[in-house]
Amino acid sequence: MISKYRVMFGVWLIVLLCSVSLSHSAPLACENLLQPLGHLDLNHLEGRRVLVGGSLSNLTLIDRLRRRDSATASFSSNASTANTNFRRSMLLDNKCHYASYNISLEGSSFTFDNGAVNTTFIRTSCHDCILLSFDVESGKRQHFYLFSRRRQLEQKEIDEFKAQVECLNMPPPVVMDPSKELCPEQTTTIAGGMSDTAHLEKFKTRDSATINYPNASETPITSFTRNFNFNDSCQHLQSNITLEGSGYSFHQHNITVTFLYTSCPDCLVMRFDDESKKPLRMYLFSRRREVEQKEIEEFSAQAGCLNMLPPAVMDPTKELCPDQVSRREEETEG
Description:
Elements: H1 2-33, H2 42-45, E1 47-56, H3 62-67, E2 68-77, E3 83-92, E4 95-104, E5 109-112, E6 117-122, E7 129-136, E8 141-148, H4 155-167, E9 174-175, E10 186-194, H5 197-204, E11 206-212, E12 221-230, E13 233-244, E14 247-250, E15 255-260, E16 267-274, E17 281-286, H6 293-305, E18 312-313
Antiparallel strand pairs: 1-2, 1-8, 1-9, 2-3, 3-4, 5-6, 6-7, 7-8, 10-11, 10-17, 10-18, 11-12, 12-13, 13-14, 14-15, 15-16, 16-17
């Protein structure tokens, strides 16, 4: 009889110890899964990644996340390791939406949107991924997004992400459709040089300007969109072009554009040659809103070599127009 109670007590003790062990191992596993990134490699961070999956603590926003066709996040750094540009794009309801922020990295985190969003890089075993935890409005809600250079991950990488979401007690993640189209990368006008005063003064009246080139195409005939913010009014101009060597020509306009050399790693310098006697123009574009002084000086020197007026530099604090494609070809080139 005594041995029977001893056996029962032993079984009960084993069950108790196992339950205690499990209760401690689950939080420990979650603690390991949700560790902030110890060292942020800026070379690894650079470039564009696609949203693979995401979850939000606010259930009312989950449906909006599901409606997204695709989304991207991009980082680019200046020579100073502390100053970085963070860009986002989202394809929603067949329209592209863009946002750009200048941020300062602090360890494994950064803030943006006037301090309303605190973002932390979380560890992930995915080799080409970044995992971002967005703490919005002092913890009122949390967004948890996994980005990768690939459109589709291995199942074990998705499973790890799902476990991380579960550790946060958030809804199961929305996994994006890798077949959906991405928004083209947006490039912002930094400065413009003109050969005559009239065109230069017209350029100065623009608050901001961006260009969007389409994704890679097998045909040389394509189109691109320019978005101008002028007196708080947005103009969206779409042009059909034919790619030719290191440049392109506009359809319906006697204009040839040539890409010039620049040492700026994420910039384009475009020179507009107009055979119908319109003045020569040259523009500096970048994926950042603000470039380094040496990059501005190089562009100014290029303008000087073409006997153009000193370039006008855009104000990087001015608001950008949302992306919208006009269905008509522009009537004037300016």
